[in-house]
């Protein structure tokens, strides 16, 4: 049976892969009486390209637009068959005019959302319709609708076109696979119509009346069972047994007893007996030992329970996965934002600060610049006690991409903006909102989060906006986004030439930043000596400007006038180009371990009644300070091109010009194939540095210039962030762009991550672990969609083994020796290569110096030695005789 042709639709048959055929006829509305109309579908992308967006460019008042024919032909060249005008390509190519009319079909009158008028006459009739034509079209439409609704039109047969459906029908049809057997049963003609009589008789006595068909095995029809499917179900035997204790009526019963005691005569006899004396003498030593043990230790302590308390932090020792503890998302912002930087509060448990930025490209930022001014750029303070409402919101002039708490005073915060400015905040006046000191002994003082029900009525708000104290000058600062910021230690300070001096103030007063504008800047938050000479003019300006009451005057002298102390440019050498630093790590003398301990003991809270140590700061550079000798001024830098630099911030004088110039980098290594996102020193080894960027991870050792100690292979996805473990020397947490965290345990594996765990569905932007106690450690993971995940680190990843620090140190030393060996072997191979080249040159010289006769003599001697070797082999094999050999020699 042939398949029936489909009526009213274009036959398609099977779906075919590949591009659409250019020879396919465009679909028009000729059957409905509109031969010049060709419906088509335009996607949102195509609407944006041709500026024909629905409800914006095309409305109910003007549902059409004229599109240039050349633009559509250019779209064919750019997107080929992907173009939405491709179904009407033939109509476009044959169109005589320069502009084609595109009409928005809001009611889907012709089946699709747009249609094109393919003739100039139809375009003019649509743009300039006459009154008679409009009435005629209305009558025509009404007649067409009435005929379509009430008049039956019989279907018209069309020729059948094969599109491959007959093959499917043939494949699905049932065919006989075995040959049929035909049986013919005949009967004599005389037996037809004869009368039939039925009677009872013995079948065995009458012939041909009873035939016994006995079964017998036939080899031709024996089927061997190759496979058998048997199902079995085991049903348990159910047994119901019940028992009941016989209940009797309860009653109260009492009994009275008294102790059995010796009589006085019996007591005297028993005390004087020998068995009692022997027993006391034998047992007295054991009792004394037991009493001594009771005095030394408490025997009633449950050792198993104490062991469980010591190890039962989160999970057990076999648990190796990070488990989510809490998550934070800002639900009050209208625009989609991502988390750019995360920092735990140095002294308050459960308080974490997060900077967010709008997820827009540079072009989109320029386009939506007006809307971005209405949206505040914030740093949010989240608390474990309230995962919905942020405790504080720090406002900034633009999106913050990095920030750090001041090690000397956590109430001072410095951040870097996307426009190149540095922002300073002072939250001392709002410290009581987020922290509370327990009254008690000095040893038990610890800053903890104040519960929400203990807050005063004025403080119990959803969030508190805090304005910044000071902003750096736009003209004199960075020109692009600030990618990293660090506070210098409170033990030293530097001058404009990079020389190191002692810091007599005892607090952190200087910053270092790096930016994508190829500069590294050092900043000083103190009032410089040069600014004190213009006090009268400044006072006049301050009198005319009213300062809001909610802005502290701590850094008022820096606002919009803050300039960098010095600028560094890392040159690429002979070219005029500079390296583009994005991350940096200062030297081993610049850690804040001592400063943080000092903060925990003395400066946990700066009360409003007390004087802020950052008030009335004077520049220490104006006084004569003692320089610090043997101070390491070198630091590591990660660039946007994936290079790792080891440079010096101390400037040197150019012998030609006499100006102070930045020193050339000590070493440069190109290990990463993408921008570097992390440059961090190990908290256990001051000279070990971790770099994360591109598709791999590298570990470096300061002073080893031959290369990294460890360089991983390419990962499945790009790495976006990384951080050392704070408690285990050999554990590293690495974030990827697909939302996974790779956990490296160098004690188990050094060539690949020990485990990978999925945290979110988008790119991880920042990782920050934090250790609150030996039993509780967290890691903060921020993603591209603006969510902050707080994960609890399991026991195996937070508690180091007994000799882990020494084992990891031994591994690093072994890798250093391996690099030294490889460098020595390279030198040896290079020397051997040079010696081989010299020998080849000497041989070439000898060949040129020898004459022609000498060369022929040497060749003849080589040929004779070859013939002698050949004859000796033939003689040993018995293929020739000695006489033949002699005759052959005579011939020679």
Quickly list its features:
5-stranded mixed β-sheet, disordered N terminus
Structural class: alpha+beta
Strand order of the largest sheet: 6-7-8-9-15
Net shape: extended
Helix content: 10-25%
Number of helices: 18
Largest sheet: 5 strands, mixed
Termini, distance in Å? Answer: 94 Å
Number of strands: 39
Beta-strand proportion: 15-25%
- Uncertain parts: 1-23, 308-316, 437-461, 532-544, 591-610
Biased composition (Basic residues): 1-19
Subcellular location: Cytoplasm
Region (Disordered): 1-30
Coiled coil: 821-858
Can you offer a commentary on this structure?
- Strands 6-7-8-9-15 form a five-stranded mixed β-sheet, with no helix packed on it. Strands 1-4-3-2 form a four-stranded antiparallel β-sheet. It has a four-stranded antiparallel β-sheet with strand order 5-39-38-37, with no helix packed on it.
- The protein has 892 residues and is α+β, with helices and mostly antiparallel strands.
- Helices cover 25% and strands 22% of the residues.
- It contains 18 helices and 39 strands.
- Residues 1-23, 308-316, 437-461, 532-544 and 591-610 have low confidence and may be disordered.
- This is WD repeat-containing protein 63.
- It is found in: Cytoplasm.
- It comes from Pipistrellus nathusii (Nathusius' pipistrelle).
- InterPro entries: Dynein_IC, WD40/YVTN_repeat-like_dom_sf, WD40_repeat_dom_sf, WD40_rpt.
């Amino acid at each position: 049976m042939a398949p029936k042709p489909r009526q009213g639709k274009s036959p398609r048959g099977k779906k075919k892969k590949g591009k659409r055929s250019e020879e396919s006829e465009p679909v028009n509305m000729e059957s409905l009486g509109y031969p010049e109309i060709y419906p088509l579908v335009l996607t949102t992308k195509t609407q944006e390209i041709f500026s024909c967006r629905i409800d914006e460019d095309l409305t109910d008042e003007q549902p059409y637009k004229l599109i240039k024919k050349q633009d559509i032909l250019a779209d064919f060249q750019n997107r080929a068959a992907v173009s939405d005008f491709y179904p009407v390509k033939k109509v476009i190519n044959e169109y005589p005019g320069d502009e084609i009319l595109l009409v928005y079909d809001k009611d889907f009158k012709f089946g699709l959302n747009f249609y094109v008028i393919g003739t100039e006459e139809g375009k003019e009739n649509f743009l300039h319709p006459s009154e008679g034509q409009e009435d005629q079209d209305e009558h025509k439409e009404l007649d067409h609708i009435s005929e379509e609704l009430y008049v039956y039109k019989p279907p018209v047969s069309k020729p059948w076109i094969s599109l491959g459906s007959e093959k499917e029908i043939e494949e699905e049809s049932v065919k006989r696979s075995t040959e049929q057997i035909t049986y013919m049963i005949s009967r004599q003609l005389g037996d037809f119509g004869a009368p039939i009589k039925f009677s009872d008789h013995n079948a065995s006595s009458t012939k041909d009346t009873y035939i016994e068909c006995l079964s017998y095995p036939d080899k031709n029809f024996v089927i061997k069972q190759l496979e058998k499917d048997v199902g079995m179900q085991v049903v348990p035997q159910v047994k119901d047994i019940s028992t009941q204790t016989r209940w009797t009526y309860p009653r109260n019963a009492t009994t009275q007893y008294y102790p059995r005691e010796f009589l006085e005569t019996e007591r005297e006899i028993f005390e004087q007996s020998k068995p009692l004396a022997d027993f006391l003498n034998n047992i007295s030593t054991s009792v004394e030992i037991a009493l001594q043990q009771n005095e030394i230790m408490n025997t009633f302590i449950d050792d198993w329970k104490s062991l469980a308390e010591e190890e039962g932090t989160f999970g057990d020792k076999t648990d190796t996965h990070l488990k989510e503890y809490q998550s934070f998302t800002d639900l009050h912002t209208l625009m989609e934002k991502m988390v750019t930087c995360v920092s735990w509060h140095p002294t308050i448990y459960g308080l974490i600060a997060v900077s967010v930025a709008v997820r827009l490209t540079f072009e989109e930022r320029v386009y939506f610049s007006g809307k971005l001014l209405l949206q505040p750029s914030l740093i949010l303070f989240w608390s474990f006690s309230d995962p919905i409402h942020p405790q504080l919101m720090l406002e900034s002039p633009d999106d913050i991409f990095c920030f750090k708490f001041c090690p000397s005073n956590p109430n001072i915060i410095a951040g870097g903006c996307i426009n190149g400015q540095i922002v300073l905040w002072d939250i001392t006046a709002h410290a009581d909102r987020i922290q509370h000191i327990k009254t008690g002994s000095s040893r038990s003082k610890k800053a903890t989060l104040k519960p929400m029900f203990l807050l005063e009525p004025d403080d119990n708000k959803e969030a508190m906006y805090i304005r910044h104290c000071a902003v750096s000058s736009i003209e004199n600062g960075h020109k692009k986004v600030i990618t990293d910021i660090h506070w210098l230690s409170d033990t030293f300070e530097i001058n404009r030439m990079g020389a190191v001096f002692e810091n007599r103030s005892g607090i952190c007063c200087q910053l270092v930043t790096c930016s994508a504008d190829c500069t590294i800047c050092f900043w000083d938050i103190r009032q410089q000596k040069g600014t004190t000479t213009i006090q009268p003019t400044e006072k006049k300006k301050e009198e005319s400007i009213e300062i809001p009451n909610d802005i502290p005057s701590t850094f008022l002298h820096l606002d919009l006038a803050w300039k960098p102390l010095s600028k560094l440019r890392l040159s690429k050498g002979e070219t005029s180009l500079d390296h583009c630093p994005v991350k940096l790590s200062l030297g081993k003398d610049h850690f804040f371990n001592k400063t943080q301990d000092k903060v925990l003991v003395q400066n946990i809270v700066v009360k409003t009644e007390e004087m802020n140590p950052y008030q009335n700061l004077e520049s220490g550079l104006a006084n004569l300070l003692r320089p610090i000798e043997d101070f390491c001024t070198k630091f590591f830098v990660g660039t946007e091109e994936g290079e790792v630099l080891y440079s010096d911030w101390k400037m040197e004088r150019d012998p030609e010009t006499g100006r102070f110039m930045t020193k050339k980098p000590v070493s440069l290594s190109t290990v990463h194939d993408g921008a570097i996102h992390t440059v961090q020193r190990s908290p256990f080894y001051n000279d070990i540095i971790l770099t994360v960027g591109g598709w791999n991870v590298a570990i470096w050792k300061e002073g080893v210039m031959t290369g990294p100690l460890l360089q991983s292979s390419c990962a499945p996805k790009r790495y976006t962030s990384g951080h050392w473990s704070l408690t285990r020397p050999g554990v590293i947490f690495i974030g990827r762009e697909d939302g996974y965290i790779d956990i490296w345990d160098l004690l188990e594996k050094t060539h690949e991550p020990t485990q990978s765990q999925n945290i979110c569905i988008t790119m991880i932007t920042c990782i920050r672990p934090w250790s609150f106690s030996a039993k509780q450690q967290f890691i903060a993971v921020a993603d591209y969609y603006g969510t902050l995940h707080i994960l609890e680190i399991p026991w195996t990843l937070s508690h180091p083994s007994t000799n882990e620090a020494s084992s990891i140190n031994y591994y690093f030393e072994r890798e250093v020796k391996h690099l030294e060996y490889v460098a020595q072997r390279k030198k040896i191979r290079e020397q051997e290569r040079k010696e081989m080249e010299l020998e080849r040159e000497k041989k070439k010289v000898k060949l040129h110096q020898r004459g022609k006769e000498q060369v022929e003599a040497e060749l003849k001697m080589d040929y004779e030695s070859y013939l002698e070797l050949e004859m000796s082999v033939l003689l040993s094999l018995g293929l020739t005789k000695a006489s033949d050999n002699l005759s052959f020699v005579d011939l020679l």
